Recover the amino acids of this structure.
């Protein structure tokens, strides 16, 4: 094939001019491949150790109640069964005045069915939990000892029972499946839980039944029989193949975000690809003109250099994919300590293939235009293009091909995403940013061309004239510099604003608005005494109490949850159980957006008030039905109204609110929130934990501290990915400088010959790059604020405050980078001797 032979002959001369082409492509592909491979390795680890994570082959979970005899007989018939009960409780030292919220887990003698509990000292679990007189044994997290200011051998009280702390838990095999926890672990026997008196009708307790199957038992048949024979049991069924769905959803969302950041780096790298191809085609002007003069067709020339683009893109993609493929192996030691199970390091072809496809699409989309433009114009126009570049649009087939490649790139980003809507926002934002910065570069050149400065007005006027001329001269790198620096700065400003707003929300706004405490598991006969206790404590303020139950949605209209088409953002509503309440009046912080609230004395068939976003996500409207399983009974209710909630207040909000009547007569507990001064917080905490030990106390500042730590960790990961984007931008900048290096050297030689000093040339370079940096940083500042507002205010539905100082520092940092690059570009010009360059010219 002639075109391939000619292409290969040219490439035999070396890749010196294409190093940045390959580097830009490899960096973007490596970031996408690495993130995808790491996520796949974690998910594979979860699937490999699914039985260990779940604690058996299958799990049946009930809330508020233990299995009835008929249900337990069914479970026992399937194999070996282990029962555990989990709930939140308050623990206090019997020999002191310290108390803390703990996650109490009561286990039977069969626990654990899979794996083992690692303790320090290394004792059998049965010995650690053994009862000694009226004191039960317990194993605890290290954090439990710290919060209670206790040590091994001390005795603590939980409810009406006493526990001796016999060991520290180093590893608990099924801990990762439990989701959010608000306190450290206390592990005890089931007999100890019964003695504590904490399990009351309606108390928030979870009963887990893990089964290790007997030979011949099949997962699918057991699940089908359980659903058919116990349709109203309300139990949630999971098997080991599901791994950890909560962690997997988190990985999907975090991975999506980081992949999109990596795609930004790849798109910026695409500008470098276009610059490299354009510079290469300019260097080959003589060759192309000669070939055309000898009768070479446009198609042959296009194919010659298209083959080169394919080959070079292949090298960059292979390098990027190779680097990304080894990321799980390199990160294994650092991440395994933080993961519930070791990740399964290996090669995962799916994320590598997606990353390679991204790289190929970007390379072709950005290279097609300069390739077609150079191959399609006449030989004389090629030479004129070196001095006065024109628009010279390629023919429509090439324009159509470029448009289709960018459309394919957008489709791949959107339809391969866990949340397509979020990816679509990203694609639209990237397109707008690229367009804005390209137009800004064009406008800056036009403005610079229109500015007329008088001659002979001093050295600084001459220097400024040189800088302005450089901004709009033929072959100027203004567009590349503006685009690569601007997009990278926009991303950094956006990330800094999002992280700053989340930190401010958690550390400043929420503590002022949020209650001091949440109180859980208040029994109906305790509610009046609890209110009196709060009122008698100095420094306490408003008290809000609501009934509290848990239930699971079992039908949406006539459909089972798995048959419903759900907005991915609202899928969580159908996964697991939800908090429920009933109310005679519209809850505080709610606004009706459809329907009417029921009368205060309503006592008819069950009605539901549903949160607005959930109703929209499930496709529900007024009059539709929703079936919720509560305490083993399916309750079908009509949707009477739809509410909008203010989630930012951290008050008591429920997605589902029932009408009074039926639920009033069901066993349930109450939730309460209390606002208090710092002095009142401590007094109220001591009073409630001492006089009402069965009530669990959740201190909001502890929760906010954990949330802030999570935001910090996520922010670090995002900043790391954003830095990759900045590096990609710097590579493009370096490529733009390299592409015009010889032009700069010739210009410097001429200026020196005409009497310009080193300081004149240096000042002109710095003024040129300062103009690009200032204008680009200003637009990045504005676009970053707009993008961060959309993420925080619209997607996260949170309050937004522009952090002008943070954004300005980020943008000014970009200006500094531009000036350093300008100085670097000037340095070679300053050191070059004019005579050899003038002789070559």
């Amino acid at each position: 094939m002639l075109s391939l032979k000619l292409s290969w002959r040219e490439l035999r001369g070396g890749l010196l001019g294409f190093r940045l082409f390959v580097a830009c492509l490899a960096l973007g592909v490596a970031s996408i491949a690495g993130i995808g491979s790491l996520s796949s390795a974690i998910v594979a680890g979860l699937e490999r150790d699914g039985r260990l994570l779940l604690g058996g082959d299958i799990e049946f979970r009930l809330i508020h109640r233990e299995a009835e005899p008929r249900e337990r007989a069914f479970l026992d018939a399937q194999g070996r069964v282990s029962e555990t009960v989990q709930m939140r409780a308050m623990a206090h030292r019997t020999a002191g005045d310290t108390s803390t919220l703990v996650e109490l887990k009561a286990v039977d003698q069969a626990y654990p069915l899979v794996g083992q509990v690692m303790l320090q000292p290394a004792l059998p679990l049965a010995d650690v939990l053994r009862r000694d007189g009226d004191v039960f044994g317990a194993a605890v997290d290290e954090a439990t000892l710290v919060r209670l200011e206790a040590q091994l051998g001390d005795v603590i009280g939980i409810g009406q029972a006493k526990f001796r702390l016999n060991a520290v838990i180093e590893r608990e095999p099924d801990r990762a499946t439990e989701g959010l926890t608000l306190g450290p672990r206390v592990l005890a026997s089931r007999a100890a839980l019964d003695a504590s008196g904490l399990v009351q009708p309606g108390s928030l307790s979870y009963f887990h039944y893990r089964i290790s199957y007997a030979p011949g038992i099949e997962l699918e048949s057991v699940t089908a029989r359980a659903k058919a024979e116990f349709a109203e049991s309300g139990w949630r069924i999971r098997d080991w193949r599901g791994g950890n769905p909560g962690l997997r959803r988190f990985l999907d969302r975090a991975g999506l975000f980081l992949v999109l950041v990596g795609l930004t780096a790849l798109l910026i790298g695409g500008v470098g690809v276009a610059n490299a191809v354009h510079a290469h085609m300019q260097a080959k002007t003589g060759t192309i003109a000669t070939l055309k003069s000898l009768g070479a067709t446009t198609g042959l020339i296009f194919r010659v250099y298209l083959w080169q683009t394919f080959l070079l893109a292949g090298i960059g993609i292979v390098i990027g994919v190779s680097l990304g493929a080894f990321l799980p192996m390199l990160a294994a030691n650092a991440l395994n300590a933080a993961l519930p199970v070791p990740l399964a390091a290996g090669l995962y072809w799916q994320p590598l293939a997606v990353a390679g496809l991204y790289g190929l699409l970007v390379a072709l989309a950005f290279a097609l235009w300069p390739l077609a433009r150079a191959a399609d114009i006449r030989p004389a126009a090629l030479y004129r293009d070196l001095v006065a570049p024109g628009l010279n649009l390629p023919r429509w087939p090439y324009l159509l091909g470029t448009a289709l490649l960018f459309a394919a790139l957008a489709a791949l980003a959107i339809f391969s995403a866990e949340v397509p809507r979020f990816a679509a926002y990203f694609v639209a934002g990237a397109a707008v940013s690229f367009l804005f910065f390209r137009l800004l570069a064009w406008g800056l050149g036009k403005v610079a061309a229109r500015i007329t400065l008088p001659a002979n007005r001093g050295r600084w006027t001459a220097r400024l004239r040189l800088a302005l001329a450089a901004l709009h001269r033929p072959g100027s790198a203004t567009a590349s510099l503006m685009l690569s620096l601007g997009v990278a700065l926009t991303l950094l400003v956006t990330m800094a604003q999002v992280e700053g707003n989340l930190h401010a929300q958690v550390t400043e706004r929420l503590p002022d608005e949020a209650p001091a405490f949440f109180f859980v598991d208040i029994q109906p006969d305790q509610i009046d005494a609890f209110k009196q206790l709060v009122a008698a404590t100095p420094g306490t303020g408003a008290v809000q109490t609501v009934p509290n139950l848990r239930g699971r949605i079992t039908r949406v209209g006539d459909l089972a949850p798995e048959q419903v088409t759900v907005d991915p953002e609202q899928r969580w509503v159908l996964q697991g159980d939800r908090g429920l309440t009933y109310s005679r009046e519209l809850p505080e912080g709610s606004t009706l957006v459809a329907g009417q609230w029921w009368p205060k004395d309503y006592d008819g068939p069950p009605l539901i008030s549903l949160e607005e976003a959930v109703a929209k996500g499930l496709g529900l409207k007024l009059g539709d039905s929703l079936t919720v399983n509560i305490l083993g009974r399916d309750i079908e209710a009509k949707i009477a109204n739809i509410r909008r909630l203010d989630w930012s207040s951290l008050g008591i909000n429920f997605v589902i609110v029932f009408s009074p009547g039926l639920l009033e007569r069901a066993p349930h507990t109450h939730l309460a929130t209390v606002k208090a001064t710092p002095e009142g917080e401590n007094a109220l905490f001591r009073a409630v934990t001492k006089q009402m030990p069965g009530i669990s106390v959740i201190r909001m500042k502890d929760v906010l501290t954990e949330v802030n730590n999570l935001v910090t960790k996520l922010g670090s990961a995002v900043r790391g990915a954003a830095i990759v984007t900045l590096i990609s931008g710097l590579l493009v900048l370096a490529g733009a400088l390299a592409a015009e290096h010889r032009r700069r050297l010739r210009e410097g030689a001429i200026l020196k010959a005409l009497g310009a000093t080193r300081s004149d040339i240096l000042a002109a370079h710095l003024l040129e790059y300062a103009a690009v940096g200032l204008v680009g940083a200003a637009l990045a500042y504005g676009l970053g604020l707009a993008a961060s507002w959309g993420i925080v205010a619209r997607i996260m539905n949170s309050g937004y405050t522009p952090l002008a100082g943070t954004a300005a520092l980020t943008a000014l940092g970009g200006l500094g980078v531009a000036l350093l690059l300008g100085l670097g570009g000037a340095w070679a010009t300053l050191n070059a001797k004019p005579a050899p360059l003038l002789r070559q010219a």
